[in-house]
Amino acid sequence: MHRQILATVAVFATALAVPLTVGSPAQAYGTRPASCNTASLCFYNFIQFRESDGVGKVTGSNPHLGVFSHATCKDGTWNNCMSSVWNATSRCFHLHNGTDYTLGYHNLAPNDGYTDMGAQTSLNNRVSSVRAGSTGNCNF
Ligand SMILES: [Ca+2]
Questions:
Q1: 0.90 cut: is pTM over it?
Q2: Domain presence at residue 21
Q3: Is the pLDDT of residue 49 over 90?
Q4: Which residue among 1, 18, 37, 40 is least enclosed by CB atoms within 10 Å?
Q5: 39 CA distance to ligand 1 centroid (A)?
Q6: What is the distance in A from the centroid of ligand 1 to the CA of 91?
Q7: What CATH code is carried by the domain that includes residue 102?
Q8: Residue 42 pLDDT > 60, yes or no?
Q9: Do the beta carbons of residue 87 and residue 108 sit within 8 Å?
Q10: What is the pLDDT of residue 27?
């Protein structure tokens, strides 16, 4: 009888552990690249924080990445061109498919990144706007 109670307690403890796992921080991809040494959201036109003709950087929200020219991107701007990204700020960013913070988005917490947006998100070469929260909390 005593053994049976212990077994029941063990199962209950395992069940409790599941929500804690779900609530833990998202897996971080990569580490801060040397090219992102300021408090910016840094984005790259290739995976693994590689770029041609420069790193894209913003420090806050931007409703249309198309305002930033980038010659080697498909349409000559950062619109729909991001393939990897690092967040060196203290605020969470929402990376949106649409301009003006529309359509779907992925969260990107402070000190985290996506090294390969095609493998890790649905937004490779699709991010058109970025919205910063007021803190590192991504619920906004
Ligand atoms: Ca887009």
A1: no
A2: no
A3: yes
A4: 1
A5: 24
A6: 22
A7: 2.60.20.10
A8: yes
A9: yes
A10: 60
pLDDT of 79 above 60:
yes
CA end-to-end distance (rounded Å), the chain? 50
Ligand 1 center to residue 80 CA distance, Å? 5
What is the number of domains present in the chain?
Answer: 1
Residue pair 101/131 in contact by the 8 Å Cβ criterion:
yes
CA of 16 to the centre of ligand 1 (A): 40
Residue 22 lies in a domain: no
- Looking at the chain, the whole-number percentage of residues with pLDDT higher than 90 is 77
Residue 137 domain flag: no
Q: How far is the CA of 10 from the centre of ligand 1 (A)?
A: 48
By the 10 Å C-beta count (0-12 exposed, 13-18 middle, 19+ buried), 8 is classed as exposed
Question: Which residues constitute the domain of residue 41?
Answer: 29-132
